[in-house]
Amino acid sequence: MKANRILLFFFMFLFVAADAQVTINGVTLPAGIKAGTTDLVLNGGGIRKKMFFKVYTGGLYVTAKSKNAAEIVSADKATGFRLTITSGVINSNNFSEAIEEGFTKSLKGNTAPLKSKIDMLISTFKSEEIKEGDMFELVYVPGEGVKASKNGKLKTTIAGLDFKKALFGIWLGEDPVDADLKAGLLGG
Predict the structure, then answer these.
(1) What is the tally of structural domains in the chain?
(2) What is the pTM of this model?
(3) Contact at 8 Å (CB) between 187 and 68?
(4) Is 14 part of any domain?
(5) Which has the closest alpha carbon to 101: 5, 2, 180, 173?
(6) What percent of the chain has pLDDT over 70?
């Protein structure tokens, strides 16, 4: 009887631990976030490195865990990306430039069709100074668009599945900004 209780406790602990928050590079990624009324679960997380700097820690949130990057990017399903700035060398200008470069990679250089939407997101990053510890959430809600928040405050909503695909392609596309981060986001 006692052995059964210990075994039950062990399996309960494993179940709870599997859905627990994760800490990466000193940043705690919650086990889940909301996309409108939809609950999203943490798919995976990692660190965006540029040269020798750990620029930010990011977490990917989906409706059901998946290792299929192309499906996550293209699906008209609620999806979220949470990033926390972890380097003091990041500011609004260089972060905005990095996002623009990410879109260029994601769209294989053809950013013209989404230029106004990309500019809208970049203006969100430039609207106030970015500093170490700032947290951004980019959450796609089907039928509404990508909701961009900074430190829990909604800054803008950018409509379109096309924009969602380009945005998530930055981290999960064929030529992501950081292959190690992509692997981490996919739970690898």
Answers:
(1) 1
(2) 0.87
(3) no
(4) no
(5) 173
(6) 89
